[in-house]
């Protein structure tokens, strides 16, 4: 049996020194081609650095709020409670590219990571596909403050279920779990990863700041 989680983080910013200051996931079951919430987990996280004012203005998390919070390494393994031989899928909006950069090495190995943003770009016609744009376009019944980790998980769950209303889970699952096969930026934009020069792959892995976790994983597997 596969456990399905929808996850999200709030962070100290978007720079290379960003750290997680809030984490949430919603565990779901697939029932009649629809994801149904079974349980939820959320926690503030001590990021190990101060939270800039501009980040606090977005998610309303302050240094005082996380002062006594656990670190992500202290809380996440127990929160996930992965058992031997268990198969887990984690989906989130832009989760493989952004959030996994901050959770790599904390999430146990062997978890499949998928992206609802990738599926939304494929299956939803909208002016934009960020969570904010989709909230507005789909008129989501948002139950919490946008840019809190749990509220973003619940909105992502709604988006996935909207897509499931018109297609089978296997199709959506395959799209969300698809790994990058081409480079999407730079002088080799559009080329297959397998055709990239070795020197360029080394540069991407060792020096380029634009490489998301999912692209890095795909490059390392070449």
Q: Could you provide a short overview of the structure?
A:
The chain is of the alpha/beta class and 222 residues long. Helices cover 39% and strands 18% of the residues.
Topology:
Layout: E1 2-11, E2 20-30, E3 35-44, H1 53-59, H2 63-66, H3 72-80, E4 87-92, H4 95-103, E5 112-115, H5 116-123, H6 131-138, H7 149-164, H8 169-177, H9 198-206, H10 213-220
Parallel strand pairs: 1-4, 4-5
Antiparallel strand pairs: 1-2, 2-3
Description of the molecule:
The protein has 222 residues and is α/β, with parallel strands linked by helices. The protein has two domains: 2-178, Ribonuclease H-like superfamily/Ribonuclease H (Nucleotidyltransferase, domain 5), CATH 3.30.420.10; 179-222, no CATH class. It contains ten helices and five strands; from the N terminus they run βββαααβαβαααααα. It has helices spanning 53-59, 63-66, 72-80, 95-103, 116-123, 131-138, 149-164, 169-177, 198-206, 213-220; strands at residues 2-11, 20-30, 35-44, 87-92, 112-115. α6 packs across α7. The radius of gyration is 18 Å and the shape is globular. The two termini are 30 Å apart. The model has no long low-confidence stretch (mean pLDDT 94).
């Amino acid at each position: 049996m596969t456990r399905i989680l929808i996850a999200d983080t709030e962070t100290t910013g978007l720079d290379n020194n960003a750290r997680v200051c809030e984490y949430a996931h919603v565990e779901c079951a697939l029932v009649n081609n629809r994801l149904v919430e079974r349980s939820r987990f959320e926690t503030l996280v001590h990021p190990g650095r101060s939270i800039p004012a501009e980040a606090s203005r977005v998610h309303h998390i302050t240094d005082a709020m996380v002062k006594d919070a656990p670190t992500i390494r202290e809380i996440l393994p127990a929160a996930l409670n992965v058992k031997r031989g268990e198969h887990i899928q984690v989906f989130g909006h832009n989760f493989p590219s952004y959030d996994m950069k901050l959770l790599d090495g904390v999430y146990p190995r062997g978890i499949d990571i998928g992206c609802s943003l990738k599926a939304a770009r494929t299956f939803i016609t909208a002016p934009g596909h960020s969570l904010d744009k989709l909230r507005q376009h789909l008129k989501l019944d948002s139950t919490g403050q946008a840019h809190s980790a749990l509220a973003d998980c619940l909105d992502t769950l709604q988006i996935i279920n909207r897509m499931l209303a018109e297609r089978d889970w296997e199709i959506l699952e395959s799209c969300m779990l698809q790994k990058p096969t081409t480079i999407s930026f730079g002088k080799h934009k559009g080329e297959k990863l397998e055709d990239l020069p070795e020197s360029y792959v080394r540069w991407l892995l060792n020096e380029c700041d634009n490489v998301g976790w999912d692209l890095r994983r795909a490059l390392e597997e070449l």
